[in-house]
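Example 406, ligand pyridoxal-5'-phosphate.
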Amino acid sequence: MSSLLETKIAARQHALREQGLLRQRKVLSVDHALNTNASTSSPRFVLEGRAYVNFSSNDYLGLSRVPELAEALHLGAQTYGVGSGASPLVTGYSDAHLALEREFCALTGHEAALLFCSGFSANTALMKTLFDQHDIVVADKLVHASIIDGLQDSGAQLKRFLHNSLESAERLLARNQTSALITESVFSMDGDCAPIAELSALCRQHNAWLIVDDAHGFAVLDGYKKAEAAKLIDVQVVTFGKALGCQGAAVLGSQALIDFLVSNAREYIYSTALSPANAALALAATQYSTAHPELQQQLLENIKLFKRLCREANVPLLGSDTAIQPLIIGDALQTLQVAEKLRAAGIWVGAIRPPTVPVGSARLRITLTAAHAAEDIATCVAQLAQVLSRVGVPLVTERQAADNHR
Ligand SMILES: Cc1ncc(COP(=O)(O)O)c(C=O)c1O
């Protein structure tokens, strides 16, 4: 006889499979032939013996494959060992961590920083520690799951404003004595940007903190990396797994905030520290991105090329100007079907389904990087147009496409 939990697991998995929402991992490997020139060719991987061009990575600047950064990781491991060996408050905090914290402060103008092993734990730690049942917090409708989880754990009263709507945010701020407003610099599933300067002004007017998850903006969008960031943003969360191409995260803010988190954030206190080698790597990656502005330029050119080709082929994008280019299909099963057909042509794009995005807005999430070659971008768009018309997803007219792209 099946146990209660076995029965529950089987029923839930069955339901997810029926709705096209079952999630499964794929084991990827490296294409050694194609990776000899890794830092100068389009990102690729091999799955079951077949190579794919990767259009679903957040390695926006291609830093994960830069030889100098592999060297920095190696040197960090040789110097400090491969792990930190303890939580930061025991013996896990080293001069490698401090150097990275200082670099972030110099770049953004924040007073202090605190490192975490992932963006997810940085966000949940920040929310859970900073807020309690006495706080009212307003957040954009589309903020990341880690923020929502942390807020739910905190017991704070959460009020959501319409995505990127200043009017909706202002209404909530005017009606509630709000502790903080939370948004993202670049939204992970839509690729659009929050109006940070305007939200900051609203927050100042209502005496609330502005907290920005800068996971997809840091090192890609100039604005919030420069020393002005701290003038607009009270707390900035930077993750290393996107444009920095490595792993980990930092919370940046006032010295008082960071001291408070050091004493109270359970994810920080009761967890093995980010390895010093990874901190050294993140420092090298940050410095590399600053020293190589041509990578940002190349990324912008690749985004422009992709959007222009889509417009010419009547492929209906959502209107983002960032590396994240969503194409909404709506139905989850149809989205999977389109992604599968692209894969058959050697193009790998993410098929994003609920609950990651709202029901009825399943989508392809195509991400561009500085490392994509122009011919691979052209192939991607040509295949997209072909597959969408074969599957019966409506292409837009030239005029609608122009509207979408504004
Ligand atoms: C907006 C946003 N915040 C936070 C995270 C979590 O960061 P990490 O991948 O480092 O855990 C992600 C990752 O998907 C994200 O997209």
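Summary: Residues 397-406 have pLDDT under 50 and may be disordered.
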